[in-house]
Amino acid sequence: MIELLPVPHAVAVAVCTYREPPVPHVPDWPHAATADALRPLAEHPDDTGEGTFLVLEDGLVVGDCGWLGPPQEGVVDVSYGLAPSARGRGLGTATVQLLVGWVAARGAVQVRAEVRPGNAASLRLLARLGFVEVGEHAGHRVLVLTVGSRPPPAPGS
């Protein structure tokens, strides 16, 4: 079973200072991009870390995911990463589905993800979930998924 657990500050600090994270995890987590993903939380102890999650499979951390901030005009950017040992078993799909549900419940109308062009597995995963490629940004392919509709304009606007 996959679940998302908000990242405790102590875990973010441990990862970003290259110490052993104080949570049960697979041997190949944290992965290469984990410190970058958790750095904002590690550097701001008062931050609740809302939207930054550990991905757990049967109680073991196998990855991390989250949004890059609350929706702006209904659009939210997300990222995710799994340990190499957790890939290819449907865990990424389950992770992105949970994350999309979480951001949609917080007002996202469109979910955006950037993927390196050579990451065929991630591109396939997002396409399976209905993400559509819309362009490029900073050498990455940009994909979006519409998860709701924009609210009607306020009267008089």
How would you sum up this structure, described in words?
Helices cover 27% and strands 29% of the residues. The chain is an alpha+beta fold and 157 residues long. The chain has a single domain, classed as Gcn5-related N-acetyltransferase (GNAT) (Aminopeptidase), CATH 3.40.630. Strands 1-2-3-4-5-7-6 form a 7-stranded mixed sheet. It is globular.
Number of domains: 1
> Order of SSEs, N→C?
EHHEEEHEHEE
CATH class: Alpha Beta
Structure class: alpha+beta
Proper CATH architecture: 3-Layer(aba) Sandwich
Assembly type of the chains comes to single chain
Shape: globular
Widest sheet: strand order?
1-2-3-4-5-7-6
Cα distance spanning the termini: 46 Å
Largest sheet: 7 strands, mixed
The fold-level CATH name is: Aminopeptidase
Number of strands: 7
Radius of gyration: 16 Å
Separate helix tally: 4
Average predicted confidence as pLDDT = 91
DSSP strand (E) fraction? 25-35%
- The fourth-level CATH homologous superfamily is Gcn5-related N-acetyltransferase (GNAT)
Low-confidence stretches: 152-157
